[in-house]
Design goal:
Elements (H helix, E strand, L loop, with lengths): L3 H17 L3 H18 L2 H17 L3 H18 L2 H17 L3 H18 L2 H17 L3 H14 L1
Length: 158
């Protein structure tokens, strides 16, 4: 008998291949099937990783509300589990959507929390990614001097 958790992981991986090929329709179909099997098997970690990918596709396709909902669900899960690395990633994702939606305060708060978590973890690559987003936000609100400083710090982190 097939192990639903293993099948869910395989479907996630196949979805990732379709995603890398920019075949978002197929990727989404694999991800949806993976989500169902992850829930059935009780593998909440695989569920959250897959749901994040569903959010990424929604974001790429311009469905920001759906992307935000997916990222927020993942964020709650990672926070409950105490997985600060995954939480930092989700906070940056949420910040990016908030920025696109014009919610400057929420975006800034998410980026700052993500940066604190990444600093505590020593995650230089992740910090550079979040700093890039923070720099873009600063540019969007017209603070180009701050944007340049933040982007320079981010560049120095990689």
């Amino acid at each position: 008998e097939e192990d639903p958790a293993r099948v869910a992981t395989a479907l996630l991986n196949i979805g990732n291949i379709a995603f890398e090929r920019a075949d978002y329709v197929r990727a989404r179909a694999f991800y949806e099937e993976s989500l169902a099997l992850s829930e059935q098997s009780g593998d909440r970690t695989a569920w959250a990783r897959t749901l994040n990918n569903v959010g990424v596709i929604a974001q790429i396709q311009g469905n920001l509300d759906q992307a935000l909902a997916a990222y927020e669900q993942c964020s709650r899960f990672w926070r409950e589990r105490g997985d600060t690395w995954s939480l930092a990633t989700q906070l940056t994702n949420i910040g990016d959507i908030a920025c696109l939606l014009g919610d400057v305060e929420r975006a800034r708060d998410c980026y700052h929390e993500s940066l604190r978590l990444r600093r505590d973890q020593g995650d230089r690559d992740g910090a550079a990614w979040t700093l890039r987003s923070l720099g873009y936000l600063a540019h969007q609100v017209g603070d180009d001097d701050y944007a340049a400083r933040v982007l320079e710090i981010g560049r120095a982190h990689v």
